[in-house]
Amino acid sequence: MDAVVAQMKKDAFARHLGLELLEVLPGRAKVTMKVTDDHRNSVGMVHGGVIFTVADYAFAVACNSHGVLAVAVNCNICYLRPPSGDTLTAEASEVSRSRRLGTYTVSVMDGEGNQVALFQGMAYRKGQES
Asked: In this structure, which long-range contacts are made by residues 15-22, counting pairs with CB atoms below 8 Å and at least 24 apart in sequence?
């Protein structure tokens, strides 16, 4: 698991946004991010792309947590409400996994504990170590 965490911490965009890995278990991941003014859109709400990125990073960590390189082949997100508070936390869970495909759901919560988005992703498992 340490090798997976080390690999995922190399993600320059995640570092740039301030994403922090809180938990990595087989098929699961939890990440958080402090929301700043740089993450807001022109009307003052957290940008949808930021919410997607937090969810996508949790998904990437979870689907690579088995030590096999996995890349996204399909992702979708439903935005449920605008976030409140100053943090976003995403928790990814494995729904199914075969030799070549993995399906994951990610719940994104705001700083007040409200679910703000639901993300679903499918990963292609390349069959080589990550």
From this structure: 17/50, 17/53, 17/54, 19/53, 19/54, 19/57, 21/61, 22/89
Q: Hey, what amino acid is at 115?
A: Q
Would you place residue 2 in the very low, low, confident or very high pLDDT band (cuts 50, 70, 90)? confident
**Quick one: three-class SS letters along 62-102?**
HHHCCCEEEEEEEEEEEECCCCCCCEEEEEEEEEEECCCEE
Structure tokens at 128: 């080589």
Tell me which residue of 57, 80, 77, 66 sits closest to 25, measured CA to CA. Answer: 66
Report pLDDT digits (tens) over 76-93. 999 999 999 999 999 999
CB atoms within 10 A of CB 129: 11
Pick the CATH number of 2-129 from 1.10.10.10, 3.10.129.10, 3.40.190.10, 3.40.50.1950: 3.10.129.10
pTM of this structure: 0.93
